Amino acid sequence: CTEGRSSDHWVDFDLFGHQLVIHLSENDSTSGKADSNPVDGKQVPIPHFGVVLDMDTFTKFSEKLKKQNVTFIIEPYIRFKGLPGEQATMFFKDPSGNALEFKAFADRNQLFAT
Question: Residue 94 gets which letter from DSSP?
Fold first, then answer.
């Protein structure tokens, strides 16, 4: 995996055109405590799995989830507005409690922009 963007607490890797995001956690894996890291002023759950969609699919999917009253960890919004890597993103849990991220870029070439 090639490295994309990063900060002091996370790194994006290119995993077949999707982002594998590794976050530093202050808790060890045996604590069982849910954890998060601040990204763009929001508490992003870790661990989580993310999928990159095209913008039209993201918009339709997020509207469908809202209509179904899905409880979001992070409501759909535009992250890093006006910066490299600007993206639409949202987080919610699957029925087993796993955190999922769905995101989209107006310009997919920004997926790993630094």
Answer: -
